[in-house]
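FW: tagging you since you asked about this chain on Friday. Here's the raw sequence from the shared folder, copied in full. Didn't touch anything.
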Amino acid sequence: MKKVLITFAALALIASVSSCRETEKKTEETVEAAVEAATEATEDAAEATEDAMEATEEDAQDAAEAVEGAVEEAAEAVEGHSDAH
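HL: got it, structure written out here
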C-alpha cells in the first residue's frame, strides 16, 4: 500500500511540475501578445495623431488664406468707396 501511495504522490508531483511549465509558457505567450498589441495600438494612435495634425495644419492654412482674401476684398472696397467721393 505504501508503494502505491508513494507512486501516486510521485506522479502527482511530476504532473504538477509539467503543468507549471505549460502555464509558464502560456503566460509568456500571453504577455508577448499583449505587448505586441499595445505596440501596434501605440503606432496606430501615433499615425492618427499625425494625420489629424496634418489636416489641422491644412485647415489653418485654408482659413488664413480666406481671411487674407477677405481683407484684400475689404481694402479694395474701401479704396473703391474712397475713389467714388
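FW: Helices lie at 2-84.
HL: agreed, and The mean pLDDT is 81.
FW: great, closing this out.
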